[in-house]
Amino acid sequence: MGWKVERLNVFVMVVGLFLQGVYSYNRPPPRQTLFIPHSVDAHSDSRPQQVHISQVGQDKMRISWITESPTPARVEYGHSPEDNGNRNIATGTTTSYRFLLFKSGQIHDVVIGPLKPNTIYYYRLGDSSQQYNFKTPPSQFPIKFAVVGDLGQTNWTNSTLQHIAQSEYDMLLLPGDLSYADFIQSRWDSFGRLVEPLASQRPWMVTQGNHEVEKIPGIGRPFTAYNARWRMAFEESGSDSNLYYSFEVAGVHVIMLGSYTQFDSASAQYKWVVRDLEKVDRGNTPWIVVLIHAPWYNTNTAHQDEPESYRMKAAMEDLLHGARVDVVFAGHVHAYERFTRVYKDKPDDCGAVHITIGDGGNREGLATKYINPKPEISIFREASFGHGILEVVNATHAFWTWHRNDDGEAFPSDSACFTSLSTQSACQI
Prior knowledge:
Order of helices and strands: HEEEEEEEEEEEHEHEHEEHEHEEEEEEEE
Structural class: alpha+beta
Strand content: 25-35%
CATH topology of the largest domain: Purple Acid Phosphatase, chain A, domain 2
Number of strands: 24
GO molecular function: acid phosphatase activity; metal ion binding
CATH class of the largest domain: Alpha Beta
Protein name: Purple acid phosphatase
EC number: 3.1.3.2
Radius of gyration: 21 Å
Distance between the termini: 63 Å
Helix content: 10-25%
Pfam family, one: Metallophos
CATH architecture of the largest domain: 4-Layer Sandwich
Number of helices: 6
Domain Calcineurin-like phosphoesterase: 143-336
CATH superfamily of the largest domain: Metallo-dependent phosphatases
Number of domains: 2
């Protein structure tokens, strides 16, 4: 039966990728996908795996994990690694999902808090004695974000994750394309195990990309695995969908948008963005950062003329420009590119800086060809795997660095200083 399931998985993946148009240009040879197995012993069915945390509101965290067998959705947590009888206990929910012949493990989801900022907490999950720890983000500047897109699970991914781990970041932002499971659901499990060492210690805030859609016409719903496994705190921002939401941390308002759900002016997402931007208080959050998957600005030959890019840009760029959004991060294109402040394809001192960072380490390879001559709005571009660090120093200044994976080292290949548009008199609304 196992070989039949695997052959079905491969068939479904090939058909699905063709229907979604994922292979839309000639990529370099693909890289091998790693598979991280679950440790097997007498307690393996009840042992937590794929642990990751995400921020909920200003002072809470959602802890998510999976077990093979039913266990309590319970988190025991406190300031000390010792069980001194003063620990807090929170309970949550357990769900699972089916995808064709695949049935997921028990997906546990518990929100804990209120928590103190910039503080280490120790926690245990379910009935397990294994102990984890995480650090909450600061409540005020400075704050350091790691930014990486299109991660996948290859040796390049491993290198990227090791470099991020050395950066002492406070929160990770991921603009889509997480596991590259592409319909083979066991790859979601493998990805969860691969990122657990980082994702269990710092909040990971993600949005979806095209590889999360996993929709077979006439069968099931899109984003089934993504929504079940990577639930974000969308309700807290007034959103009705896990595919778009916002949150605030240490003076930064972060908006996660969905490139692969409706975004025209009549859509629920568009109307939510309007409401969300109206509520932003630049006195409390002087910075606005937006994440999308399909870039609105792109001088790579890959992923040109895709509706998720040009139609979403036509629908929403005026909204972001009117709100004086500072930075827009995108993925999708497997390379790095930084633009000047731009609006309607021209330099604009009150426009957002657009940065494509879809170079986390996916198996499909790099997008190595660019349009020449380079347009003046494109400041720096390079087809290498890597990650970025956005350090928001204070209400006025932030420092950006892109680190290329260079022979096992994280080499700082591009950097820039940004000034918040909320402090620019010429850009006052």
